[in-house]
Write a structure and sequence with these properties.
With 50 residues, the chain is mainly alpha-helical. The protein has one domain. The protein contains three helices and no strands. The radius of gyration is 10 Å and the shape is globular.
């Protein structure tokens, strides 16, 4: 998902990058990859909710 965000031209702050790289929860990672294609800000990737 980091590649998707970067390819879309979004800045990926260090805290977001670190959180993504540390995750081992497949459900969470699946949710994030789906969000990575639609969010307008990388921090929104980690937002709780929908």
């Amino acid at each position: 998902m980091l590649t998707v965000l970067e390819t879309r031209g979004l800045d990926v702050p260090a805290d977001v990058r670190e959180r993504v790289l540390e995750s081992t929860d497949l459900t969470e990672l699946d949710r994030w990859i789906r969000r990575a294609v639609v969010v307008s800000d990388a921090r929104a990737l980690l937002a709780t909710g929908s």
